[in-house]
Amino acid sequence: MTGRPPVAPGAAPPVPDGAVHSWDTSIGVDGPGTRFVVFLAGCPLRCRYCHSPDTWYGRSGRRRTVDEMVATIARYRRFVQVAGGGVTVSGGEPLVQPRFTGELLRHCHALGLHTALDTSGFLGDRADDALLDATDLVLLDVKAGRPETYRRVTGTGRLAPTLRFARRLADRGTPMWIRYVLVPGLTDAVDEVARVADVAAGLTGVERVEVLPFHRLGAHKYAELGLAFPLADTAPPDPELLARVRGQFAARGLTVT
Questions:
Q1: 195 close to 149: Cβ distance less than 8 angstroms
Q2: Angle subtended by helix axes 66-74 and 98-110, to nearest 10
């Protein structure tokens, strides 16, 4: 007899293995303090500025159980706690694998670690209350202020699910860091930024807004995969543009980094 044992009537099905692309440690960019960051494989969006096309498909990840990942994380527990950090589950898009993500966050909480979920919010409806109960912070990537721009940025997505998820987090009192990638000619219009600033200012629980300058550091990954990088000819924003956009968010009373 092979495969998993049968599930008893009325019992919850076992948590599936996760497709884990990689893991790494970071300081201050994936949540507070030093973070152990788990990158899951699979994402439904095809953002024009994506620097990790190697995480788009689940098949690019290695199958791992929650217990395997928790055992790895536990070896770094003291290190990240002393540095005021914790664990961040990122991707790809972690809500492609909501049960694995939720169980991993729950186990990290049980270890006494601060937990963060890095998500676009596009699949926010997949995050049940148990997953969010185990999440101390959401890093929410708000990609645009207008639906038509969101579609241009992502190729496959819609803005409404992200806004719905943001309101749900605010209603729950879940702390958020709003992230906005600034791309000249794509997300830099004054009214576009103003719409995102309006959204962020209208949400309780937004601790900060991170304006992230577009870069081309992932271009080599497209070449390795035989893909064309959509923004190969786009330059990063200059200091004046970056200052203007950060100023728009700050003018709404938001803390900007």
A1: no
A2: 40
* DSSP secondary structure code for residue 256 in this structure: B
**pLDDT value for 2:** 45
Residues 163 and 135: beta-carbon distance below 8 Å:
no
Under DSSP, the state recorded for 11 is: P
On whether the CB atoms of residues 144 and 196 are closer than 8 A, the answer is yes
Beta pairing, strands 176-182 & 137-141: parallel
pLDDT reading at 103 higher than 90: yes
Residue 255 pLDDT exceeds 80: yes
C-alpha to C-alpha distance for 46 and 88, rounded to whole angstroms: 22
Q: Residue 40 belongs to what H/E stretch?
A: strand 34-40
pLDDT at residue 8 is higher than 90: no
Tokens of 107: 């186990």
Q: How remote is the C-alpha of 142 from its chain's centroid?
A: 10
- Averaged pLDDT, 64-68: 97
